[in-house]
Amino acid sequence: MLLRLMPLEGYFNNYEKLTPTQIKVGLAKLWLDRPMAVQLGHFWQDTLRGELGVSNKYRVNYPIGKIIASKAPLSIQIGLMAVTLAFLLGMPLGILMARSARGHSRLKIWDRFGTVVVVVIQAVPASVYYLFIQIYGTELLGKFFPLPTLFARDNPLTWILPVFSLSLSTMAWSAMWIRRYMADESTKDYVLLARAKGVPAAAISRRHIFRNAFVPLVQSVPTTILLTLMGSLYVESRFSIPGMGGLLVDVIKRQDNTMVQALVLVYSGISIVGLLLGDVAMALLDPRVRFAGKGDAR
Amino acid sequence: MAVDTDRDGRGAILSVRSLNVDFTLRGARHRVLRDVSLDVRRGENLAIVGESGSGKSVFCKSLMGLLDANGRVESGEILYEGADLATLTEKEWLKIRGKEIAIVMQDPMTSLNPLIPIGRQITEALRLHRGLKGKAAREAAMGYLRDVGIAQPELRFKQYPHEFSGGMRQRAVIAIAIACRPKILICDEPTTAIDVTIQAQILDLLLSLQQKYQLTTIYITHDLGVVARVADRVAVMYAGDFVEIGTTEEIFYDPRHPYVWALLSSMPQLAKKGENLYSIEGSPPDLSSPLAGDAFAPRNRYALKIDFVRRPPLFSLTETHQARSWLLDPRAPKHERPETKGGGAG
Description:
- The structure holds two protein chains of two kinds.
- The longest helix of chain A has about 40 residues, at about 65-100.
- By secondary structure, chain A is mainly alpha-helical.
- Chain A folds into two domains: about 5-50, no CATH class; about 65-295, MetI-like (MetI-like fold, Orthogonal Bundle), CATH 1.10.3720.
- Chain A has helices at about 20-30, 35-50, 65-100, 110-125, 125-140, 155-185, 190-195, 200-220, 220-225, 235-240, 245-255, 255-285.
- In chain A, helix 3 (about 65-100) crosses helix 6 (about 155-185), helix 4 (about 110-125) packs across helix 6 (about 155-185) and helix 5 (about 125-140) crosses helix 6.
- Mean pLDDT of chain B is about 85; it is low at about 1-10 and about 340-345.
- In chain B, helix 3 (about 120-130) runs parallel beside helix 6 and helix 6 runs parallel beside helix 7.
- Chain B has a domain at about 10-100 and about 180-330: Rossmann fold.
- In chain B, strand 11 (about 315) and strand 12 form a beta hairpin.
- In chain B, about 30% of the residues lie in helices and about 20% in strands.
- By secondary structure, chain B is an alpha/beta fold.
- Chain B has helices at about 55-65, 90-95, 120-130, 135-145, 155-160, 165-180, 195-215, 225-230, 250-255, 260-265; strands spanning about 10-25, 30-40, 45-50, 70-80, 85, 100-105, 185-190, 215-220, 235-240, 240-245, 315, 320-325.
- Chain B has an eight-stranded mixed beta sheet, with helices on both faces.
- The longest helix of chain B has 18 residues, at about 195-215.
- The interface of A and B includes residues 198 and 201 of A.
């Protein structure tokens, strides 16, 4: 709606050179000469048919579906790798922190170390540490093997830094919450009972504490994964990756209303599906959460 | 309940000797168990009684090596089957816990893992200590579920804790505890968190299991009704020390320590209608500084001067009855004992 308040000139690439008739035809093509209600109805009809329409300015008359299809796979690939890496690093770090936090003071160094890592990642703005990673990653590591600054799809080496950069915040997030929930769970009675059964500490961590600590986190995992589709503005622009990252900002700036509509629609759809999947995952993991209507809920 | 103490046939299965346990809290050391000694006899039902914070739970946790991270056994011995448990490493404890000594904890609502079916929580112990796997483990676990009075074990085996009621959960916890055929079963306030109507059932169950599996059970409780129902012997704890030890009859009908007098007087069952319920004045001592004399002295209206200065020795009254009070010294002045008789033992 707000975008509709922008001047008409914005809808055209070469407004100054057009005749009034051409402008009229152009506006009619976009249904902009109809009343608001009709426009909305038209939008709903198209959406229900799965039709996202064509781009108006970004690539004139090119179907938006195709634009997304050409950019999304790369973002998703990088994003999925980053999320995987984040969980692979973050979970063990969180578990290590939780286990050392209640152990010997000698072990607590790991908890301190992890806390420092997490706090630094959370506190320093992403754009700053991305920059550092790009500069020092290429310079220092470059002495041993060359890591290019810019991204090239065919060169696997160029994938390393962007994926690593992108994974950091999720890694810190997962480490922090896993540690927190595991520390919570480890004081519970059933953990004491498991110890009293003679279960070794490592098995208690794995079988009893971790699973319980993971329940509150699992809800947000699908959303995290699905939102990789959106790409990352910072990482993608810094390493010049032709992904989804800057797309939304770009089309808003260029007043490409059909693109904005389509993207916002897709992203909100993803968020909703992500939340739904999160709830499903939670129900799978925790027997206390049951789908309603099955009749066996007590 | 009839009290049976045939002293000769039962050697001590567990001997605690001069046990001192310290906790560190915000840099300050607190001596929670002070020079505690106790023999637990094979096959008996021993009750450890004391108010909150007296150290009875800490005593039992130290028997299983389950003290919290800030607590540690400072000195003393815990002799079990020729080994000193106080010196065990964490790895060695794994062979004792569950297998030799098991525990039933207070709150069945929180002592089961909510994400694991009941059956698997029992077989976990079976696998660790008896090497049972798959079908054999399942059969054995169902046997124990039947033992603790859970109907339809096939169905219950697969259910999760939230599908059990409180009493059923406590039964499941008991099944876990006995699954590895321990010799000693510690029941840490096993009925405190349970519906009153179920409490008696749980106690009866524990007694019948004790017979069936020849367990030695240690009850921790502050409920003297529970003591009267289940215990052969009672040890009364105050501020980290046993002040009086005796058979249930001796403690209820012939208590000697002023704290035990006070404790028995404050039982609601004994109070007369219309009278205020007796309560012990003052509060338990601060454990951060070393205690001199009898810890109960400041709250004791029978306290002698020496009670504030020197710790009383353990006076033996009979072969089974000991109390730690200067009043029992032959030099002590005559004193009138309050009316505590008939304390619920029946």
